[in-house]
Specification:
The complex is a heterodimer of chains A (about 190) and B (about 650). By secondary structure, chain A is α+β, with helices and mostly antiparallel strands. Chain A contains 3 helices and 11 strands, in the order E-H-E-E-H-E-E-E-H-E-E-E-E-E. In chain A, the strands form 3 sheets. Chain A has a 5-stranded mixed sheet with strand order 3-6-5-9-8, covered by helices on one side. In chain A, strands 4-11-10 form a 3-stranded antiparallel sheet, with no helix packed on it. The radius of gyration of chain B is 61 Å and the shape is elongated. The chains are: A alpha+beta (about 190), B mainly alpha (about 650).
Chain lengths: ~190, ~650
């Protein structure tokens, strides 16, 4: 079961400058096998850097008729939630793909583009960390092999056991392959 | 006489020749001096010759005594001398000189005339003395006349500038004066030596001198001693001006010091001081500040020390003074020794207060568990039992019981739910409580060590028995090992332990305050934690003891971030930092960054560690980023600087 929901309003309400929360720990990722099951992946994709060719072929839902989801055709702030429900495949992790366009570093208003990027990142983390089972607002049909767009307008839900994200090999031309083979996950 | 007249004439001639020109060198001066000296010598020779001839005449006259003849001869001689003198007086000055000479001659002739009979009767020695005396007088007069004439008449020029005659005279007199003075000193010393030698050989004189010297020295020594004592007392009292009482006291002191029977000088000094204080009460009031100077304190200390030493020497030890001194030393030692215990007591008291606070807080929050008598009685029993035990060895067991109690399932579903919520709310309190109990346990161990090893063995057994109840054997061994290390370390000075305790207390206070005020945060954390796995939470409670909750108590999953963008280094680092800030907002315990192949984010863990160490919040870190971005824009506007790396900047400026 997968779900997604729009939490844009929540991230907008955050007073970043007066936030007193302590900063978390940061480290560089090193694959650790079994421990990855307890980790969630947030993939931030800057759609402005994707291939122009992919952007040209736009369809209504952003997905091709062959079942491939072209990220270049997606709009900004669209979140793709990936959920592995069965835990059969240990190499897969829960996570989400956050599409965004980086704000231009306008020299006049530094705060604006900083907060814009910050809200996008916050939205991605919210999706990645939100419990998918209890608090999802828009449940999508669990038909295997389908890619459905939620009613909120900017979320895609996919089955994780059929989705593999090539996170490392093709950063320039990222595609979310819905019907990809199971063994192509490099994680 | 003719020779002298010739030389005088030549001298006057030369002088007459030179004087109109008005110029004369040093050679001329020496020439004149030589001339004058030769003149004096010639005149002296003539005079001696005349004397000798006159003596012979006197002898001749004495042999042929004829007053008329002698008178005629003398008159002739006198006339001849006058004529000679008249001839010699070419100038005015020479007339004066010549006049004096004539007077001398006449005097000598008169002497000769009057003393014909006497000279005849004198012996040769007296005659020689008189001759030498007369010659000396004559030479002096001649010399004075010569100098006078030189000073008056000579116009000496040196290097075309006239030299005053007084300068020349001064030079001559100085040369003579040195010799004369040295001779005079020699003769005086010789005479003095002779005189003193004679005097020192006289025993009566020596004894008299010694007696006088002794009297004078005695008087002076008494004066010196009096002055010294006056200064000493004034320094001790702090008053500079002398008073009448001081004089009296000094007199008393002097009398006492002279009395060999009086040995208690320090007592006299103290009595004198008291007397002065009593009589000069008004003055002491006005100068109260001065009287309380350090000098007075030092004086009092000296007096006390003196009394103590005196009493010790006298065999009557002053118990009061020694007691005071001993008390002071003991106080110092006890102060230094009791610092540790005081600090320890303070920390233990604060720990007990925190523990009591947490217990009360937990008791207040567990009102929903009133229906469950086990829970209430558990807390009450725990607190009371701990109070009874005084934070002893059963604290760990209590903490374990406390945790076990909250983790144990209840009899009904409602109780289970209540227990679950209570366990979530009291999670922080449990950790803090456990830490406090552990610290109190260690402090009690420390006290036991101080009291003795016999007492230490018994609670250790109790500790072992209490710890045997724990389910986790590995933790027990670990704690045993830590306690063993702690015990071994406590054998030395336990400053490090006190420091750790203080630090722990501060942390615990902060955590207690945080748990008290952050109810909403605890609730949100409880909600987030309720979705996590129970096994994960259970292990977290066991392994994470003294660390802050933000870093050791992850509410959710660890998150891996993968950025699929091909931007420059600045954008990549900025994005990573912003993602780090955003993740911190959602209490991500650990944020991993994937795909750092180019090594641009390798400094990010260092930055996060530094930020955590400095206690940066999300807002603070964001403000630093904004500051960096503004600096970057300013540099770009100037166009002179290359872009800085954000992580380097943060490492430097955080």
């Amino acid at each position: 079961m997968m779900a997604c929901f729009d939490t844009t309003m929540m991230s907008d309400d955050i007073d970043w400058l007066r936030n007193c929360r302590s900063v978390c720990k940061v480290d560089l990722y090193k694959p650790a096998g079994q421990q990855d099951q307890d980790r969630k992946v947030v993939c931030f994709v800057d759609v402005s850097t994707l291939n122009v060719e992919d952007k040209d072929c736009k369809d209504a839902a952003g997905s091709s008729s062959e079942g491939n989801l072209n990220l270049g055709n997606l709009e900004e702030k669209e979140i793709i939630v990936i959920k592995d429900t069965e835990k059969k495949y240990q190499s897969k992790m829960e996570g989400s793909v956050c599409l965004f366009k980086q704000a231009s570093s306008d020299p006049v208003s530094v705060l604006n583009w900083l907060f814009s990027d910050l809200q996008k990142y916050a939205l991605g983390f919210q999706h990645a960390l939100s419990p998918s089972t209890s608090s999802c607002k828009h449940k999508v049909g669990d038909t295997e092999g389908e890619c459905n767009r939620s009613s909120s307008g900017n979320c895609y839900s996919v089955y994780a056991n059929q989705v593999n994200i090539d996170l490392l090999n093709r950063p320039q031309n990222l595609q979310l392959e819905m019907a990809a083979t199971k063994n192509t996950n490099n994680n | 006489q003719s020779t002298s007249a010739t030389s005088a004439k030549s001298l006057s001639t030369q002088r007459a020749v030179i004087s109109p020109d008005g110029e004369c060198s040093l050679d001329d001066l020496s020439f004149y001096v030589n001339q004058l000296s030769s003149l004096v010598i010639q005149m002296a020779r003539k005079e001696i010759k005349d004397k000798l001839e006159g003596r012979s005449k006197c002898l001749h006259h004495s042999i042929v005594p004829s007053p008329a003849v002698s008178k005629t001869a003398s008159e002739i001689a006198h006339e001849a001398m006058e004529l000679t003198a008249a001839e010699m007086c070419g100038t005015g000055e020479e007339c004066k000189e010549g006049g004096q000479k004539s007077f001398l001659y006449s005097e000598l002739s008169n002497k000769n005339k009057s003393g014909d009979k006497q000279i005849y009767q004198r012996d040769s020695k007296e005659f020689a003395d008189s001759i030498s005396k007369g010659l000396t007088v004559y030479a002096n007069r001649v010399a004075s006349d010569m100098m006078f004439s030189v000073m008056k008449t000579l116009k000496v020029h040196s290097s075309r500038k006239p030299i005053p005659a007084c300068v020349v005279l001064k030079r001559v007199l100085l040369n003579h004066a040195k010799e004369i003075v040295s001779d005079l000193i020699d003769s005086c010393m010789k005479k003095l030596h002779n005189i003193t030698g004679v005097l020192m050989a006289d025993s009566d004189f020596v004894s008299a001198v010694k007696r006088n010297l002794f009297n004078h020295g005695k008087q002076n020594a008494a004066d010196i001693m009096e002055a010294m004592l006056r200064h000493l007392v004034s320094a001790l009292i702090g008053e500079k001006k002398e008073t009448k009482s001081q004089h009296l006291s000094y007199a008393t002191l002097k009398a006492g010091s002279r009395d060999p029977k009086c040995n208690n000088k320090s007592l006299e000094l103290s009595a004198m001081k008291a007397e002065m204080k009593g009589k000069d009460k008004c003055k002491m009031k006005s100068d109260s500040c001065k009287s309380l100077t350090s000098a007075e304190k030092v004086g009092e200390h000296i007096l006390k020390e003196g009394l103590t030493m005196w009493n010790q020497k006298q065999g009557n030890p002053c118990k009061m003074v020694t007691k005071v001194c001993c008390n002071k030393d003991e106080k110092r030692e006890t102060i230094s020794a009791s610092t540790d215990s005081l600090a320890k007591d303070l920390i233990v008291s604060s720990l007990k207060l925190i523990q009591y606070h947490l217990t009360q807080q937990a008791r207040g929050k567990d009102t929903c568990e009133e229906d469950c008598p086990d829970s209430t009685t558990g807390y009450m029993a725990q607190s009371t039992q701990y109070e009874k035990c005084g934070g002893g060895q059963s604290a760990k067991a209590l903490s374990v019981k406390h945790l076990e109690f909250h983790g144990a399932p209840g009899p009904s579903t409602c109780q289970k739910e209540n227990q679950r919520i209570g366990s979530q709310k009291m999670d922080t309190s449990n950790i803090v409580l456990k830490l406090i109990q552990k610290l109190l346990n260690e402090s009690s161990n420390c006290e036991d060590l101080c009291e003795g090893e016999n007492k230490h063995s018994e609670p250790k057994v109790n500790k072992a028995t209490s710890m045997s109840k724990r389910p986790d054997e590995g933790e027990e061994q670990c704690q045993d090992h830590q306690e063993f290390d702690f015990i071994s370390g406590m054998k030395q000075v336990n400053w490090h332990f006190i420091g750790q305790l203080v630090e722990s207390v501060v942390k615990l206070c902060l955590m207690a305050e945080y748990s008290k005020n952050g109810a909403a945060l605890a609730e949100s954390e409880g909600e987030a934690a309720s979705t996590s796995k129970p096994t994960f939470r259970g292990t977290r409670c066991i392994h994470n003891d003294a660390m802050p909750q933000n870093y050791q108590d992850p509410p959710g999953h660890e998150v891996i971030v993968n950025n699929q963008c091909s931007t420059n280094s600045f954008q990549k680092q900025l994005r990573a930092v912003l993602q780090w800030i955003a993740a911190s907002q959602f209490d991500v315990p650990m944020l991993y960054f994937m795909g750092d192949d180019d090594g641009q984010l390798e400094k990010l863990p260092q930055v996060s560690a530094k930020a955590a160490e400095k206690g940066y919040s999300v807002g603070g870190l964001l403000q630093e980023v904004i500051k960096f971005a503004k600096e970057q824009q300013l540099d770009e506007a100037v166009g002179t600087m290359a872009k800085k790396q954000l992580l380097d900047w943060l490492l430097t400026n955080l």
